[in-house]
User: Fold this.
Amino acid sequence: MSKRIFRAICAICCGTMVLWLMVVVGFLHSHTQETLNEQLEVQARYIAHGVEEMGMDFLEDTDHVSRVTWVDADGIVLFDSQSDAQTMENHSERPEIIEATEAGSGDSIRYSYTLDETTVYYAVALNDGSILRVSDGLYTVWEVLLEAVRPMIVVLCLVAVLAFFLARRIANALVRPINAIDLSNPSIEDADEELTPLLQKLRSQRRQIRHQMQQLTRRQEEFEAITENMREGLVVLDGMGMVLSSNRAALELFGTENSRNRDIHVLELSRNSALRQCVEQTQQGHSCYLTTEGQDSCLELIASPVQEGKVGSGAVLIIRDITEKEHRDRLRREFTANVSHELKTPLTAILGTAEIIKEGFVKPEDVPRFATNIHTESERLIRLVNDIIKISRLDEGEMGAHWEVVDLWQVVGDVTARLQTAAQQKNVTFILDGSSQKIHGLPPVVDEVVYNLCDNAIAYNNEGGKVIVHLHAVAEEICLQVTDTGVGIALDAQKRVFERFFRLDSSRSSRGTGLGLSIVKHGAAYLGAELGLESQEGVGSTFTVMFPKCPEELL
Ligand code: ADP
Assistant:
């Protein structure tokens, strides 16, 4: 800035000086020329008078400073002080001669071939019609001018030097207080008066910027707080596919947590070809939806283009982990298929038996057996429907909201009492070990869990076997263990026994629906309990359910 001020001051000074010089030179030039004209006129009139009196002798006897030419009325040169008159051409066409012939005197400025320079002429008509002309070169004007201008140029140079130093001083003096302003805290009190409006403007702009920065930071923090707590992944891309911003969930879903705070391309997040196509589509201004299936995860991706006018300037990607949803959908599909199949089996048996009876193919003595068949299958059908209803309600979380303090020891007593007949039929003995333990839960669900475990412990027990039910507190939990001395479950089947409709081959023909342990699993999860299984083929099984203890304040 100081350089610009310095240059401007220098330019103004020099420009003014040059302009001034030009005006002075112009004035001097016209003045000098006028003076020359007047001198020539005085000379011409003086010499003309001399010639009138003495003729040629006057001209020849006088020393002439300027050039003197005498021309007769026909334009023939009679005398010239600087050239041979005999050799000179006729002068009747010279403008000053014509003017003098007509008006008595005349002047002109033009180039003289005789003198080889621009010349000022003044001519006077004599009484005999001849013309006397005096002339002088214009260079004399310039000579005078040069003489006058020389000191001016010296002054000009001095002024230029002075202007140079002065401009530097002024520029520095102007810029110094501006440079001295503390931009981080402009103080009006110590500053020059002229700078006050500037400082006030600076202060108000600083306030405005600070306010805007605070707003931006708050918005940024809000945005980060929201996006960081989102379960969905969020990635914002620029037009070239570079990641502008991404949240924690997105990096976790793509398994690229270490790429945080790095400039990366979206394809570094995932090499998936579908993702690449999706990004390309957004770059062409189209939205895109896709699901990708990895080894043990399934992602859903929604990509929308961000457009500025008609040009795509980036994209926003939302990524959701739909592994569990897909798993649930698959289970539901399987469940529906299984339900249809499981319902069809007893119904087909009932229908078949009823048809045989209807057609009269059954001997009267066999009718009770066939009727028992229908009864058994109907019972199985009802059990199946009931189990399906229970598991569906557990699935949908529609078990009711009436949670209460439940004495688990009492539930165990009720269940074993209800199962006494079944146990006796198989000669299985119940051994109950424990004491009153309270949990917080939904009584029908607690009952289902205990009932199904005890029912299975009898059903898959050996003749004369035992079912031992342990109930005791462990730290902050209540531990329910149902142990039997039955057939046990093979290791590979242990993982699957909690699946819906899963039954071991050997038990396919049993009265079970394959939903009992599934109800136990869902019921335990519903109550916040953890389920465990230990089993050994031919030795027996132990199912453990760890319930959370009932909170003190509810007791
Ligand atoms: P089901 O109605 O067939 O009993 P469950 O879901 O209760 O269905 O059990 C699934 C399968 O797990 C059963 O078919 C059975 O083979 C096995 N199972 C369950 N409990 C026991 C147990 N206590 N001992 C051995 N096998 C069992």
Q: What stands out?
A: The radius of gyration is 61 Å. The chain has four domains: 2-145, 230-321, 325-390, 401-554. The pocket of adenosine-5'-diphosphate is lined by residues 452, 456-457, 460, 484, 486-489, 497, 502-504, 507, 510, 512-518, 541 (CB under 6 Å). The CA atoms of residues 475 and 549 lie 9 Å apart.
